[in-house]
């Protein structure tokens, strides 16, 4: 989940976060449904991203659209953690990134409580970040947050659709609800303990099994060791392993909607960027992210090629 990736990142100077390197984006791409008239002709822009597949894909989408619109683009994606990319945008060492509203609201801006309504949280982030020199464009519905998932095979017995259904099952048959989670999720207030409190359930300690994140998907899909598993909603393995994500019907987990965050000076100089990226964000959903992430994390494809293929398929850009 996007918000957690920052926790292990040290707040280092930009000289230590890889921004002195980068490579020019050399793709021969042309405007499609966006970039007509090449409004970024003559611009030299730098894109960046965090170092997980989804954010790298999104960063390359920005870069390819900028390139099609006439800009020279320097690729500085795949920076460690979240702080590196954030500082690059704030300092003006990079021009654009796909950021997550929950990460900004909680981690960068220091708020303890998320805002339940996703649009209200985006507005709050946009307004608060003005003083940091960051301009936020409209968000997508792509929401990379926590969830619990169950295999369709196991769910044939229980018919669970929501976390309220899980709570009802836990009260009715406590031994049935076994959960595989990461250590961090097992102890965080915005993880399992907070979820149990919000939904009025108390799982026996023996029913909570802690393991690495990558193992959870396999255990939920292929074994009977856990009925439910902690997942991230945009993970490509959800679809690949035929898992069902249970709805957070009480809206407990924070929203981590992806939205372009720009260095404010860049946006002032090139306001046409909004017209380039707003249609992209409007097309990005959690389901789209699952499919694209699966191409990288399950099938082993290159994030740049995944981004390019999808943009061409959607008609945003064309091959040169």
Structural write-up:
There is one protein chain. By secondary structure, the chain is α/β, with parallel strands linked by helices. The chain contains 14 helices and 13 strands. It has a five-stranded mixed sheet. The chain has a three-stranded mixed sheet with strand order 1-4-3. Strands 5-12-6 form a three-stranded antiparallel sheet. Helix 1 (53-68) links the parallel strand 3 and strand 4. The radius of gyration is 20 Å and the shape is elongated. The two termini are 35 Å apart.
- Assembly annotation: single chain
Low-confidence stretches: 3-19
User: What pattern of helices and strands is seen along the backbone?
Assistant: EEEHEHEHHEEHHEHHEHEHEEHHHHE
How many DSSP-defined strands? 13
Q: Classify the helix fraction into a percent range.
A: 40-55%
The major sheet is characterized as: 5 strands, mixed
Which range does the strand content fall in? 15-25%
How much is the average pLDDT? 92
Instruction: Give the overall form.
Output: elongated
Distance between the termini: 35 Å
Biggest β-sheet: strands ordered side by side in the sheet? 9-8-10-7-11
What structural class do helix, strand and pairing data support? alpha/beta
* Gyration radius, in Å: 20 Å
């Amino acid at each position: 989940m996007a918000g957690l990736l920052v926790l292990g990142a040290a707040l280092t100077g930009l000289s230590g976060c890889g921004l002195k390197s980068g490579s020019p984006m050399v793709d021969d791409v042309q405007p499609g449904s966006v970039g007509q008239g090449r409004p970024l002709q003559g611009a030299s822009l730098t894109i960046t991203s965090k170092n997980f597949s989804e954010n790298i894909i999104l960063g390359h989408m920005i870069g390819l659209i900028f390139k099609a619109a006439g800009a020279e683009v320097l690729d500085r994606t795949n920076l460690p953690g979240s702080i590196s990319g954030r500082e690059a945008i704030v300092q003006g060492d990079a021009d654009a990134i796909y950021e997550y509203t929950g990460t900004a609201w909680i981690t960068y801006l220091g708020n303890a409580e998320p805002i339940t309504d996703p649009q209200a949280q985006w507005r709050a982030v946009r307004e608060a970040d003005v003083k940091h020199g960051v301009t936020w464009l409209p968000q997508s519905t792509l929401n990379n947050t926590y969830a619990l998932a169950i295999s369709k095979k196991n769910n044939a017995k229980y018919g669970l659709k929501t976390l309220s259904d899980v709570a009802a099952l836990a009260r009715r048959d406590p031994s049935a609800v076994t959960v595989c989670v990461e250590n961090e999720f097992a102890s965080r207030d915005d993880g399992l303990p907070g979820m149990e409190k919000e939904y009025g359930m108390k799982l026996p300690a023996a029913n909570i099994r802690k393991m690495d994140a990558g193992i959870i998907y396999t255990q939920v899909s292929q074994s009977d060791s856990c009925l439910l598993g902690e997942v991230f909603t945009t993970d490509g393995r959800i679809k690949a392993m035929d898992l069902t994500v249970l709805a957070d019907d009480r809206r407990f987990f924070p929203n981590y909607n992806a939205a372009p965050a720009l260095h404010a000076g860049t946006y002032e100089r090139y306001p046409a960027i909004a017209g380039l990226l707003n249609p992209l964000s409007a097309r990005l959903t959690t389901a789209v992210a699952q499919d694209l992430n699966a191409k990288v994390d399950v099938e082993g494809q290159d994030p740049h090629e995944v981004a390019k293929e999808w943009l061409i398929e959607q008609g945003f850009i064309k091959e040169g």
